[in-house]
Amino acid sequence: MTRELELAASLDRTRERLAAACRAAGRDPADVMLLPVTKFFPASDVEILYRLGCRDFGESREQEASAKVEQIDVPDPIRWHMIGRLQRNKARSVAHWAYAIHSVDSARLVAALGTAVEREFDEGGRRDPLRVLLQVSLDADPDRGGVLPDDIPALAETVSGTAHLELRGLMAIPPLGADPAASFERLAQLHTELLRAHPAATELSAGMSGDLEIAVEYGSTCVRVGTALLGTRPIN
Ligand SMILES: *Cc1c(COP(=O)(O)O)cnc(C)c1O
User: Fold this and answer.
1) What is the number of domains present in the chain?
2) Which residues contact ligand 1 via a Cβ below 6 A?
3) A Pfam family this protein belongs to (predicted)?
């Protein structure tokens, strides 16, 4: 089977899965975005998914992503979402190519992104604000990144007080071995609390290939799907 047919079939299956999850949860499918995650896969796969109608893509490794973005040649703009951990010295590059970043977890990173986007504005590299989702740590493991639940309000204030950044919501990855339902339920509670102070922060980036149905049940507005669409990666 050609790669086109393979990706067309997996995209159909995944859209069906997402539609079924929305039906089961009594939610409107228009409220949950399918974000293909193309890390480890070539620019040609992005172009195939683009031809199949996808316009948003997620990448988690800055160097790979910035190289891939340069290789893509398609007529309409693609919205690139940075979903992986980011070192501050890569903020400038992300400010150049990313539509949104789902993995913001420290005030120092916020400051670096604010400065980076400002420079992009000054040099004509972008005109729209960078959308920011705070990545929440649900297990307090510092190695896996994420802001602690108690620190969300202060970090949210920092983002909304930074020019050129737009606070859009929360993101989380359930801790390894944890019950995803419990994780997504907790995340949904934290999101409800965030919305009280920041009513425009409506996005909840939750759910991957293995747990998207559960995430949709708990209010996800964006499922980040790699394996189910593109196949297994060499490493994770
Ligand atoms: C790779 C990745 C995904 C996609 O995971 P799959 O299980 O392959 O669907 C989602 N979110 C993040 C942050 C990732 O790094």
Assistant:
1) 1
2) 37, 39, 60, 83-84, 173, 208-210, 224-228
3) Ala_racemase_N
